[in-house]
Amino acid sequence: MEKRVLFKSAWLPWVLIAPQMAVILVFFFWPAGQALYQSVLQQDAFGSSSIFVGMENFERLFNDPGYLDSFRITAIFSVLVAVGGLAVSLLLAVMANRVIRGAGIYKTLLIWPYAVAPVVAGVLWLMMFASPYGVIRYALIEMGYDWNHLLNADHAMALIVMAAIWKHISYNFLFFLAGLQSIPQSLIEAATIDGASPWKRFWSIVFPLLSPTTFFLLVINIIYSFFETFAIVDAATHGGPGKETSILVYKVYYDGFKAMDINGSAAQSVVLMAIVVALTVVQFRFVEKKVHY
């Protein structure tokens, strides 16, 4: 029999959710509404005068080759961060789940990066690859590989991808580890008795049972790569060399606060929000069908 919680007052449920609703309204709906409103205006840099221009800001955006190229850059970056982050985190979770002695130490060390701010993560990875004192860059040069993220676009992209994956690896690791520990060991033992190899047990039993966790983390990592990596890009490459690492969220900031194109930046934020919402809907509409609950 289904049990329902009954409140003596009809207003009590609304009072209980009021703080959360206030946060959502103030920090999501209000900024989104402001961006939508400003995207159809044209105003000076100080906001002293404005005129209604309709869709002209959007037309100007999609006629800008630099803005269209940022879609390609963002797509490459988000795929590398989401897929790479999930793969590395799953590998670490599987390894940590098999550790018997010192398991707490391994898990604690893998959780630490989540406490680091994105801008700090960007600076840390920049210092490791910076010239001439970067430890990793020095090792690469000693092996005969000339690393230069200031001039080479591929190197710059690799730098921000590694920093973004490292920053979010703890979040993914925690969920994967929890998912692995919730899998009944009797299933693994039965497959072992039947002669299944470790690789076969993982792909036929473990990974399918992790599909709800993997799907959830896929959605979260896509959103993370689109929005929360701004500070990493800003600290590590400033969108360079040229504009080769200028992802959509960084371009919104650059055009709005440096180029002083407030309304063009607002239009970009509307487009970015629409893209993320569309991607989330597509994932829930099509990818979730492959998930086994």
TrEMBL record:
Subunit-level organization: The complex is composed of two ATP-binding proteins (UgpC), two transmembrane proteins (UgpA and UgpE) and a solute-binding protein (UgpB).
Where are the membrane-spanning stretches? 12-30, 73-97, 109-136, 156-180, 201-224, 266-287
User: Main subcellular localization, coarse class?
Assistant: membrane
Q: Name one GO biological process term.
A: transmembrane transport
Where in or outside the cell?
A: Cell inner membrane; Cell membrane
What keywords is this UniProt entry annotated with? Cell inner membrane, Cell membrane, Membrane, Transmembrane, Transmembrane helix, Transport
Name of the molecule in the record? sn-glycerol-3-phosphate transport system permease protein UgpA
Q: Which family does it belong to?
A: Belongs to the binding-protein-dependent transport system permease family.
List the source organism.
Answer: Ramlibacter henchirensis
Keyword Cytoplasm applies: no
Which InterPro entries does the record cross-reference, listed alphabetically?
A: MetI-like, MetI-like_sf, UgpAE/MalFG_permease
Taking every annotated instance into account, which residue ranges of this chain make up the domain ABC transmembrane type-1? 71-283
Q: Please indicate if the UniProt record lists DNA damage as a keyword.
A: no
- Record PROSITE patterns: ABC_TM1
One Pfam family it belongs to: BPD_transp_1
What are the annotated GO cellular component locations? plasma membrane
Q: How does it sit in the membrane?
A: Multi-pass membrane protein
Q: Output the CDD domains linked to this UniProt entry.
A: TM_PBP2
